[in-house]
Amino acid sequence: MATPPFGIAEFQLVLLRRMADHHPDLVDDALRALSASHADLREAHRKWQARVHSRTFPAGERRYRTALGPPEAEEERRIGDLRCRALRWPVPLWPDLRFEVLCAPGGGAVWNEWLVRAPGAPAPALRTPADLTPWSCTVDDVARAFPPATPLTADAPTRSRLAVTAPGTGERLVAHFTWGLLQYVEPEPG
Question: SS3 of 100, please?
């Protein structure tokens, strides 16, 4: 049986599905902007999960190429001693962001997948913790604005956390992200 079409419109709903855990109001606004329903969101998530867990659907970067088409940009990247490939796709819901997949050379395993700032798109002005509002910035935006930043163990798939220091006060905070997009900030547990 042929696999039903799945593209960026459905993939945006997959991203939103995980963000609904934290900000259902923002997800509702996004669904209206996409002319989609909660039923559409659940169905897109179901289809994506079926693909991810299928033995016959391509793995690695091919999974994303099959679902999203050719990337807007691809480049070789070095992170420490590791070489990887970075693939980026535009995400119409967030025009200043791109969905980035980092994978092993040669189309191998996916190492990371998240939203990043689009090349040339200005990062938001992040000066105080009050500027860290939901969906306003990415992991890299926060890490650059609030050093020193320390990655923390993820608390669930598609989520990441970053410990940062508030300027002026020195207060340690933990920024929580889903698919690389800020969801909320809380004081670092003591």
Answer: strand
